[in-house]
Amino acid sequence: MPANSQFDVIVIGAGPAGLAAAARAAESGARVAMVDDNPHPGGQIWRASRSPEPWLRSQVEVCSGARVFAAPAPGVLALERSHGELELKYRSLILATGARERFLPFPGWTLPNVAGAGGLQALAKSGLPVAGKKIVVAGSGPLLLAVAKYLRGHGADVRLIAEQADFGALFRFGLGLVAKPAKLIEAIGFRAALLGVRYLTACWPVAAHGTEKLESVTLQRNGKTWTEPCDYLACGFGLIPNVELPALFGCRMSETGVAVDENQQTSEPGIYCAGEVTGIGGLDLALVEGEIAGYAAAGKPQDARKLFAARESNRKFAEALESAFAPRVELRNLPQDDTLVCRCEDVAYGRIRQCSNWREAKLHTRCGMGPCQGRVCGGAVEFLLGWKAESVRPPVLPVRVGSLGKT
Amino acid sequence: MSEPTLRLRVDGLTVDVPAGSMVSAAVAMAGASKFRRSVTGQPRAALCGMGICFECRVTINGRAHCKSCQIPCEAGMEVNTDA
Fold first, then answer.
1. Distance from the CA of A138 to the CA of which of A112, A164, A212, A407 falls in 20 to 30 A?
2. Are B4 and B18 in contact (CB under 8 A)?
């Protein structure tokens, strides 16, 4: 792709929302580019899969392996690739930056072979051999089942799935009245049984053990603890939206992610958001939000409007799901004072909780100041202490000095 | 017919990986238990698998701080983890 190319619409993120947005914008006659930091389109859910293909039939210029690190002027993006940097210009921008896993710290979670749940699946899809490996899958959400199924399908010995949510309690508090989550939870129990893997609810890891790498994990359920030997712990407590790039553009946030209007447009005119970045909602919602954003950004709001009803029903389901799998307060007690929370700068929980806010913690302990820029510890600190990250400044990711000089 | 493979070196050890594998897979297949040492010297390995956490950083062909989970293996690559 030539430097300084001008596009009607640039889509950031080639997961389901980005793919749908790019396809609909291109079909509407716009000149479209799609930028993604992975080697191939598909995002996480469609990594190493053929599912993106139907969405790639329209005329879209795909720019893989590229990361946006700054917005040097209105309508201009600065990108870094392995072989140099690049500036692209746009009239409308669609940010479909997706989500990452929520990691919650517990003693031993920094040991090699403790990975995210989606994380271990992504690593396995990238070629990590898991056949014959003893794996405990833990954390929260429907993703745990998909991960267990995938790992088992690739020969792993999945010892058990530990789901922190307590479905019994959720039903008692009336959530069972919402038809879909009840059905879903039923389906999850059923699918777990089909998998032949123990599926324990109200169960979570309290410590991982090992010297140079993971050897076992201690789990807790109903006040009892026991230790399971394992080669890998795949542990993630749901998903959180990747809002750093929209924040860089000054987009206003909602309770769940980036705030958008009915056309998926953010508080910044001409900048749209679609998919998990507006709030965790799953594949179907991401696709329909992407389509709406694609039509709207290409100047076809009448086509976008036809999809509003589908988006609404998917949103209701997503909200119910999020509350059903919300992390329980007991998980705030998992980190000890010497448990690292910031893995980049090795900052322990005891030092962080002596501070009174995120800014003070950054200044006094360097928490969130390392290469990941708080992408891992930020979600944990928000859950543990209720602090929100305050601002995002360019570069939004570490870049080569040579790239910085160009902006 | 077997899958095409690529040969590269991780910490001086030769490893053959299926074409399409990421460098993160090659590091694990070479038997390295850690990818890097943290600022206080702790062993670390890939956490997120999707380019967010920076825990899987290795040196590739002399270039430090490469995120191994997002870089496809190439024949003849020299990969080094922290000692």
1. A212
2. yes
Range of the domain at B48: 5-73
Asked whether the CA dihedral A131, A215, A111, B31 is positive or negative, the reply is negative
pLDDT digits (tens, 9 = 90+) for A383-402: 999 998 767 777 887 777 77
DSSP secondary structure of A211-237: SSSEEEEEEEETTEEEEEE-SEEEEEE
Determine contact: A37 vs chain B, CB below 8 A. Answer: yes
What whole-number distance in Å separates Cα of residue A233 and Cα of residue B48? 12
Tell me the pLDDT tens digit for each residue of B38-63.
999 999 999 999 999 999 999 999 99
Of B54, B57, B70, the CB nearest to A37: B70
Which residues form the domain of A119? 103-237
Predicted ipTM beyond 0.95? yes
- Whether pLDDT at A173 is above 90: no
Distance CA A283, CA A42 (A): 12
CB contact (8 A) between residue B44 and residue A115 = no
- pTM score: 0.92
Residue A191: its H or E element: helix A179-195
Instruction: Return the H-helix or E-strand segment holding A53.
Output: none
Q: How many domains does chain A have?
A: 3
Provide the pLDDT confidence category of residue A2 given band limits of 50, 70 and 90: low
Residues A95 and A204 in one domain: no
Instruction: Please report which residue ranges of A229-307 form alpha helices under DSSP H.
Output: 244-248, 283-297, 301-305
**CB distance B69–A371 less than 8 Å?**
no
- CB of B31 within 8 Å of a chain A CB? The answer is no
Residues A72, A110 share a domain: no
Chain B residue nearest residue A211, CA to CA = B43
Residue A193 counted as domain residue? yes
Across the A:B interface, residue pairs with CB atoms under 8 Å apart total 119
Residue A318 banded pLDDT, cuts 50, 70, 90: confident
Within-domain flag for B39: yes
Q: Does A121 reach chain B within 8 Å, measured CB to CB? A: yes
DSSP labels for A288-300? HHHHHHHHHHTT-
Do A126 and A186 lie in one domain? The reply is yes
Cβ–Cβ < 8 Å for A274, A21: yes
pLDDT (tens digit, 9 = 90+) per residue, A114-143? 999 999 999 999 999 999 999 999 999 989
**Residue where one domain finishes, among candidates A266, A297, A321:** A321
